[in-house]
Amino acid sequence: MAPGAARVDLSRAPRLLPVLAKGVLTGFGKRPRADAGVPRTRLVLPAVRVGLGRAASYARVCGFQATEPLPVTYPHVLGFPLAARLMSAREFPLPMLGLVHTGIEITQYVPLHPADTLELTVFASGLRAHRRGTEVVMITEARRAGALVWHDRSVYLARHRTPESAAPPEPEAEQEPEPEPRSLPVRATWRLPADLGRRHAAVSGDYNPIHLHALTARALGFPRAIAHGMWTFARCAAEAVPPGTPAFRISAGFRAPVLLPATVSYAYETTRTGGSFQLLGGPDDRARVHLEGQVETGA
User: Fold this and answer.
1) Is there a smaller number of Cβ atoms within 10 Å at the N or the C end of the chain?
2) What is the pLDDT of residue 80?
3) How many CB atoms lie within 10 A of CB 210?
4) H or E stretch including 133?
5) Given this model, what pLDDT does residue 129 score?
């Protein structure tokens, strides 16, 4: 444990909905800035059992073919209530309402199984400036019999006015063009139903209203409900990780929300160290990239 860090052991995972409601209230009046400190608290669930039924339900919704080994994204689901509790605290420097999940990197060191007993630890590792606001890096670790077996590094953005965003735009001739996403071969097309957000909420516990119904999503600025970013990542991970791979690293950046219902395309290309993947805006629309990432085997 890092010097000065305070370990807090919990007997059970926090209930996510009350924690999210608390985060709305504690966010009022916060003024995000990258040089603020983050709480040193480390929340720990010492003995977490997944269970085959829960793992199977999650696997079905996210497109994993089996629960053995455990879907690589499932420990994130187990740890997210702890991350939410940390981010909803009054002393947390960023308002929880409006945080956007912009990136994730998961390292699996050995296969995990639904029958495992895991110790989960979640903490904030620090803040960093972003041209659109301030980002926080949240770490989730899973240990089995004391050994680190799984690690998640998730980045969340609090959007706010920055000196860069407030500056007048440069003349068009002086601006560097945005890099075009590299085109990858499309491997599959998926039709996502309007109730996908509700189905994923039922197996993940994330009942954020932007994912549930068009009415609740419109109240928060979206024309329709949007798919959970973690569903898009999990669905791609189910395809991108070769079956039987014991250790690997998989990462992705979330680029644009997927409005439900939708038709999306999964693109993948093998690389020297693993593979690259994208989730695209539809079978014929290669312009919008919702997510892009990489998988590295032998992590």
Assistant:
1) N
2) 94
3) 19
4) strand 133-144
5) 86
Structure confidence by residue, pLDDT tens digits, 208-251: 888 899 998 888 788 999 999 999 999 999 999 988 899 999 99
Closest CA to 236 of 268, 200, 192: 268
Neighbour tally for 125: CB within 10 Å: 12
For the stretch 81-107, pLDDT in tens is 999 999 999 999 998 887 889 999 999
Q: Is the Cβ–Cβ distance between 154 and 141 less than 8 Å?
A: no
**Residue 158, SS3?**
strand
Which run of H or of E encompasses 223? none
The sign one gets for the Cα dihedral 72, 73, 77, 79 is positive
Q: Which of 54, 65, 77 is nearest to 238 (CA)?
A: 65
Tokens at 277, concatenated:
């993947």
Over residues 10-25, the pLDDT tens digits come to 999 999 889 988 988 9
**Could you give the CA distance from residue 195 to residue 9 in angstroms, rounded to a whole number?**
36
* Separation between Cα atoms, residue 52 and residue 112, nearest integer Å: 12
Residue 207 in contact with residue 156, Cβ under 8 Å?
no
Report d(CA 291, CA 2) in Å as an integer.
33
Distance CA 64, CA 49 (A): 20
- Contact status, residue 245 vs residue 273, Cβ threshold 8 Å: no
Calpha distance 231→171 (Å, rounded): 39
CB 290 within 8 A of CB 254: yes
